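User: Can you fold this complex?
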Amino acid sequence: AQTVTQSQPEMSVQEAETVTLSCTYDTSENNYYLFWYKQPPSRQMILVIRQEAYKQQNATENRFSVNFQKAAKSFSLKISDSQLGDTAMYFCAFDPTGTASKLTFGTGTRLQVTL
Amino acid sequence: DTAVSQTPKYLVTQMGNDKSIKCEQNLGHDTMYWYKQDSKKFLKIMFSYNNKELIINETVPNRFSPKSPDKAHLNLHINSLELGDSAVYFCASSREWRSGSPLHFGNGTRLTVT
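Assistant: Here's the predicted assembly.
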């Protein structure tokens, strides 16, 4: 069974600073998909970034980037120039089939951005 | 212009009742899902539905049943509600099957069973 571990239950960062959220996963698959989703207090789940395992290049979306280390099975999220609106729960997710039918979420990291 | 909409947003009901949550997506996506988020924020898939193929998470009690009248709708029926069913239920959709397409989530339905 696949597992996804987010070892930081809570984190805090000051506005305009950079923060990195960690995620590790366990799998014997060679090709798979990884995601970061955020859940602000409004409760809606929003895609932050997506990474395909067979692509060496780390995915980036504006201020959000990942450090994908396939051999180490690590998929960390870096948020640059943090904004108050980044305050949310962040979930790492692993999809071994591409169908989301076996999509596994981590337990989440609660990020608080402060002034 | 909501992409994935689910109703109601809040649902409070008593044990033993039967209830439904509706979900509609206007994205033209092929696949829809139901997820359950428990009190500790843990998200777990319940069902995925692609072109009339239903994949059930085996841990889901058979009191829960998805109903898909067409590709744009996937409703969730729950019979004989129990206290442990209290959670937030999310509907989601994705563009393509087997392509790692990201999920588009609805705003969730908070179900409280008393």
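Chain A touches chain B through 26 residues (CB under 8 Å). The CA atoms of residues 56 and 68 of chain A lie 8 Å apart.
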